[in-house]
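Quick illustration, no need to memorize.
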Amino acid sequence: MQRAFEVIMLSGLTIFQMSTVAASAQQGFNPQPAASVDPAPADVPALPPLPRGKSTVLGGQIQKVDPVRDQITLGVYGQKPVKILFDERTELYRDGSKIPLHDLSLSDHASVQTTLDGTNVFAVSIHMLSQSPEGEYQGRVSSYNPTTGEMTIESGAAGETFRLLVTKDTSIIREGQRGFTSSQSGASDLEKGALVSVKFESNKQGRGLATQVAVLAVPGSEFVYAGNISSLDMHAAFMVLMDPRDDKSYQIFFDPARLPTGLELHVGDHLRVVADYDGTRYMARDIAAN
C-alpha cells in the first residue's frame, strides 16, 4: 500500500510539471537561459621589449633604492649621481651570480648597464660587487688641480668627461717613442691637452682613484712616424698613417701648401712624417716619401 502511494505521488508531480510547462507555452513564456559567467580576465600584457638605445656601462655606488618609483640613485665615479629606472626586465647580479630583483639593495660598488628609454636612463642589468672595481680610461686632460689632485679627462667627439683623483701614490710615467719617454715624467705632465691612459679603482666614497697615469703626449712634444697611408682626406687635410712598429694608426693633419714639391699623397703610400702634438691634434712638420 505504501509503495502504491509513492507511485501515485510521483505520477502526480510529473503531471503537475507537465501542466505547468504547457501553461507557460500557451501564455507565450519562454524561459531564459541561465546567466552566462563572464570570461576570466585576459592575461596581463607582456612587458615591452627592452629599449634599443645605445648601451652604456656606469660604475659607482648605489646610494638609494626607491621601490615605489622603481628607481635607484647611482653615485657615478667622476660624475654627478644619476637616477636610473628599473623594472622586471632588469637583471640583477651579485658577484656574477643572478639573484632576484627584490634583493636589490645599497651597494658600495656596482656596475650598471644602462640604455635610454626616451629621456630616462633605464637599467638593463645591475651588477653589485663585493670588491672595489678597477678600470681604465683614455682621453685628453681638460683640467688638473695639483692642490686637490682632481683631474678631468675628456674623451670622444661628444666631449664626455671623467673626473678622478691623483694622489702622491699615483704612478705617473711616459709611454711611447724613445724621444718622448727619455724625458722625465711627473705631475707637471698633466697639463691641459695632455693625452693620458689612466688605470683607476674606486675609494670608499665611490670616487675614481688613479693608480697609474700613462702620459702618451704633451703639448709641444715631437713624434716621428713611418708607415702606409690607410686613409686620406685632402679637403680636411689629414691622413691616417698605420705605423707597423707599434701596429697603431695615427691621425695626422698637414698643410697642403707646405707639401714638398712633386709629392702627391695617395692611399697606400709609405711615408716618414715628423709631427708635433699641439694639445688637440698631431700636426705634420715634415713629410717625405719613404
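The chain has two helices and 18 strands.
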